[in-house]
Design brief:
Strands 1, 2, 3, 4, 5, 6, 7 and 8 form an 8-stranded antiparallel sheet that branches. The chain is an all-beta fold and 134 residues long. β2 and β3 form a beta hairpin. The chain has 1 helix and 8 strands; from the N terminus they run αββββββββ. The longest helix is centred in the first third of the chain and has 4 residues. It is globular and about 40 Å long. Helices cover 3% and strands 44% of the residues. Bound molecules: (2~{S})-4-acetamido-2-azanyl-butanoic acid (9YT). The site of (2~{S})-4-acetamido-2-azanyl-butanoic acid has 11 residues, from β2, β3, β4 and β8.
Length: 134
């Protein structure tokens, strides 16, 4: 069994930041669970453009408030505690926080470590065999 606490991760290599977000990666590919689990903060002031072409992601908001825009349709969705969205169609989307949002994020296939978004808003696909075990 794996037991890990957020307090053990903050400030380590599992604590990864990009423009407007901070992702604390509780479970990674190397943990061999088939998904990764992140406790992610979305900071206000920076719309985050994403399109996870290589991954499925579910995002569950537990704190804060913001707006999710579906690029293809222009639909705007309010995200608040209790809202989950699942990018089952690899939807191109923009997330903007009004107040700091805390999100529980699950990725399939799992993120393996220090991924940040590339210029298209995706994370690269890293083969499980090369996943770090730390
Ligand atoms: C909600 C969202 O997708 N934020 C970007 C960071 C990503 N979810 C991560 O690596 O935790």
């Amino acid at each position: 069994m794996i037991v890990r606490r957020l307090g053990d991760i903050v400030g380590t290599e599992r604590d990864v930041s990009g423009e407007g977000w901070t992702s604390r990666r509780l479970l990674l590919g190397g943990d061999r669970m088939g998904f990764s689990l992140h406790d992610t903060l979305i900071h206000p002031g920076t719309p985050i453009h994403m399109e996870y072409r290589n991954h499925l992601e579910a995002v569950y908001c537990v704190e804060g408030r913001g707006t999710l825009t579906v690029v293809r349709t222009g639909e705007k969705i309010t995200v608040a505690p209790g809202t989950v969205y699942a990018l089952n169609l690899h939807d191109k989307h923009v997330l903007e926080a009004e107040t700091t949002m805390r999100m529980v994020c699950v990725f399939n296939p799992p993120v393996t470590g220090t991924e940040v978004h590339d210029e298209t808003g995706a994370y690269p696909l890293v083969e499980a065999e090369t996943a770090r075990t730390s």
